[in-house]
Amino acid sequence: MKRYAHVLVAVDLGDRTKEIVCHAKAIADRFGSRMDLLYCFPTPSFPDTTGLLNPFSPEVLEDARDACERQLQGLLSAEECRQYHAKAIVLPSDPLDAITDYAKREGIDLIVMGTHGRTGLTHMFLGSVAERVVRTAPCPVLTVH
């Protein structure tokens, strides 16, 4: 049986985040896994008076990143953080690239992530991060629907 020593839990901090983390904890309990929680922080931009896109100020982005990191850290108790040697990572990047790059760089054995279950035109235009991660990840991916 495959041993999942290092599990990456990629979340969007939406309504189902706790459920996704619950699945990851069950796997980590079974295999004695280390667990990393990852949120990909979008770097928004807005048009200025010239019509060009300018990023938000670094201070605003840092405050938002810190808030996301606190949310991630709040998903596990202090005891669970010790048990799973958990890390909370917030990356300012496109989710697909960030998840797969992190998994390669850190030697992740399993990615656990949610899927929104979009269908039809929404799926066609927006695509599915989970679907794309499944196709490009360097390791198995468990999707929670």
Helix content: 40-55%
Overall geometry: globular
CATH topology: Rossmann fold
What is the CATH superfamily?
A: HUPs
Helix and strand content put the structural class at: alpha/beta
- Across the major sheet, the strand order is 5-2-1-6-7
Count of domains: 1
Overall pLDDT level: 84
Integer-rounded radius of gyration: 16 Å
Task: Assess the beta-strand content as a share of residues.
Answer: 15-25%
Largest sheet: 5 strands, parallel
State the end-to-end distance: 24 Å
Strand count: 7
Which class in CATH terms? Alpha Beta
The low-pLDDT segments are: 121-126
Helix run count: 6
Order of helices and strands: EHEEEHHEHEHHE
CATH architecture field: 3-Layer(aba) Sandwich
Task: Please explain how this structure is put together.
- The structure is a single chain.
- By secondary structure, the chain is α/β, with parallel strands linked by helices.
- It has one domain (6-140): HUPs (Rossmann fold, 3-Layer(aba) Sandwich), CATH 3.40.50.
- The chain has helices at 17-31, 58-73, 78-83, 95-106, 120-126, 129-136; strands at 6-11, 34-40, 45-47, 53-55, 87-91, 110-114, 141-144.
- The strands form two sheets. A five-stranded parallel β-sheet has the order 5-2-1-6-7, sandwiched between helices. It has a two-stranded antiparallel ribbon with strand order 3-4.
- The model is unreliable at 121-126 (pLDDT under 50).
Describe this structure in a few short sentences.
The chain has a single domain, classed as 3-Layer(aba) Sandwich (Rossmann fold), CATH 3.40.50.620. It has six helices and seven strands, in the order βαβββααβαβααβ. Helix 4 packs parallel to helix 6.
